[in-house]
């Protein structure tokens, strides 16, 4: 199985590293516009193989899309990340043009591929990739919910002082500081609702920390995060390539689901070899429905800024 990752920066290279290390694909192509950069990252990752024990071939190329031909999955991480104090939405001016041209270029060589969009503002970039390529909606997947849910589970595990792998939880809605919706009511510690162990105040703090999870790291690091984002993309790619049919919150095109139309936004999906194989209809309570509608309204407002590229 072949995966191309466009953008060999922090997130793209980390994603390539995790995919190789875990043997998720037999070949990974890293592509970047910076001369020699992807080649260097690929070589560095390949030189881990004998000491960590993987056999994935990692190839780096400078803007040569012919080397990406026949990719089963293409991950788009190209674009600029935010700096401390910025929102993801402020990146749209530069990233929209990049995501549009990259998604068109990859399809020339991999017409049957599934595209995973990572560049921010991710929900709007996913919508842009879908509209620009005209691909069927099951083949365009925005990655954000897998990361936000991982952060949610981390903060729950810290608040509960329990192992993170005993915690279940999902974040739906937009991938933005104010638009994501951590589903605290449905989160569990080995099947037991976390509300049995945490006060409303503690749960509210977990939700608030999750929502600004990316901003917190951006402030600490001076640029946005990459280890958990790269691992989250690899987790999603694994479910596609190995047809795992995991339920993962992803930004996907809605046509009536969750009361929304003509928008890409995070909802729980079954992810397998066909990409988005099902949108899972989780019964939300009135408060959650209201938050989802507000989140969708904010994402829709952002999508209006695409009128000059679409
Ligand atoms: N969806 C998420 O959960 C999530 C998580 C983390 C980061 N992000 C986003 O991912 C993007 C990348 O973040 P990063 O930290 O890796 O940034 P980075 O600056 O480290 O890497 C981006 C890379 O893209 C390359 N690039 C730019 N234009 C290109 C083009 N036209 N073709 C090929 N490559 C091109 C750059 O040369 C650079 O190497 C940002 O927009 C960031 O906001 C999203
Ligand atoms: O926070 C960011 O800007 C990057 C990414 O969306 C994240 O959540 O880490």
From TrEMBL:
EC number: 1.1.1.37
Domain Lactate/malate dehydrogenase N-terminal, chain residue ranges per copy: 1-142
Top-level taxon in the UniProt lineage: Bacteria
Active site: residue positions: 175 (proton acceptor)
Keywords: NAD, Oxidoreductase, Tricarboxylic acid cycle
Amino-acid positions noted as binding NAD(+) in the UniProt annotation, renumbered to this chain: 7-12, 32, 95, 118-120
GO BP terms, alphabetized: lactate metabolic process; tricarboxylic acid cycle
Pfam families linked to this entry: Ldh_1_C (PF02866), Ldh_1_N (PF00056)
Catalytic activity from the UniProt record: (S)-malate + NAD(+) = oxaloacetate + NADH + H(+)
Residues the record lists as binding substrate: 82, 88, 120, 151
Entries under SUPFAM superfamilies matching the protein: LDH C-terminal domain-like, NAD(P)-binding Rossmann-fold domains
InterPro entries listed in its UniProt record: L-lactate/malate_DH, Lactate/malate_DH_C, Lactate/malate_DH_N, Lactate_DH/Glyco_Ohase_4_C, Malate_DH_type3, NAD(P)-bd_dom_sf
GO molecular function: L-lactate dehydrogenase (NAD+) activity; L-malate dehydrogenase (NAD+) activity
Domain Lactate/malate dehydrogenase C-terminal: 147-300
Function text: Catalyzes the reversible oxidation of malate to oxaloacetate.
Family: Belongs to the LDH/MDH superfamily. MDH type 3 family.
NCBIfam families: MalateDH_bact (TIGR01763), PRK06223.1 (NF004863)
Protein name: Malate dehydrogenase
Gene: mdh
